[in-house]
Amino acid sequence: MSTCSNYKHSILIVDDEESILNAFKRILADENYDVHVAGNGLEGLEKLRTATKPYSLIISDQRMPEMNGVQFFAEAKNIFPDAVRILLTGYADSDAIIEAINKGGVHLYFTKPWHEEEILLHIKQSLSKVEILAENKHLMELLNEKNKELTALNKELEKKARDKTADLLIQTEKLKESYKKSQVILDGIVKTLSKIIETRDPYTSGHEDQVAKIACRIAREMNLTEEQVSFINIAATLHDIGKISVPSEILTKPSVLSDLEREIIKTHCKVANDVLKNIDFPYPVAEIIYQHHERIDGSGYPRGLKGNQIALEARIIGVADVIDAMASYRPYRPALGVEAALNEIIKYKGITYDPAVVDACLRVYKKSAKDSTEDNQQSVH
Ligand SMILES: [Fe+2]
Fold this sequence. Notes:
Elements: E1 9-14, H1 18-28, E2 33-38, H2 41-49, E3 57-61, H3 69-79, E4 84-89, H4 94-104, E5 108-111, H5 116-200, H6 207-221, H7 226-237, H8 248-251, H9 259-266, H10 268-276, H11 285-290, H12 312-327, H13 338-347, H14 355-380
Parallel strand pairs: 1-2, 1-3, 3-4, 4-5
Fe (ii) ion is lined by residues 239-240, 268, 292-293, 321.
């Protein structure tokens, strides 16, 4: 039902008295309503059933032959449930009124005789109420419709989000897989390169791996991140790669080196940097290797860097390198042992070696000594 003010409401009046029907026609004549009349309940129901537009208001007399007002309304309310139903009674029959409200869904009743102004006012008020209810119903329908649209839209969005998330998870997995593969390839390259250095100098075989192990343990002891540790591992494994440019005779010479030979060996830091700087590591691996013989007092080589000019990673590898070199056999001297190596770094702690790195290194060796003692004790028991 349209609720605009120029809407023409349909009203049905059912009464067996012609004079009453005429009275209503007269009362409502000046109003903009479609007024229909019926002489009894059956006729009234027929009008309702064949109506071309809904009735807004139905008025019926209670006392009529064949079908009374309550019986009429009991059926009429099923045809137009939203219509306002008004009962006319000839006297104050409270039982009939109660039955009319319960069975016929009657909203209002008037006992004869009535005042015309009063009944017109009630009709107008009832129709306003019908309009408000219809407007409300219309708005509720619109709201429900919009809610359904929103729910459908929401479901569609949720599905899209789920699909997108699933897609992203697949992409992330692929990326992880690809990253893992590149890590494996990188490890392979690093190991192959370090093997090449070893073939040049069989006496230092295993030195790169050992330095890498010691450097990583010191780094973890100093609470460096796992990413830093993994690149320290790479840098330490490749730290002597520059020795590929040093003649084998010098590397394996069983006696003390001449000054010139020593200068040639010192070039391995720069050579390593030249070789590795073109590899796009996500970390300054080439620069760290370039610095692994630098010492904090500036006495190292090749650039004589001091203190914090030397990367922490290079200071760690420098200490690990000295420890393994001194502890191991060399063609020009026997193995000096770990003890001597540790004494060396203690002696030069804070002079050539970073004191924090030395302390971390000493803690690492203390822990391994303790661990091996416990292992031995366990095997005795
Ligand atoms: Fe070196």
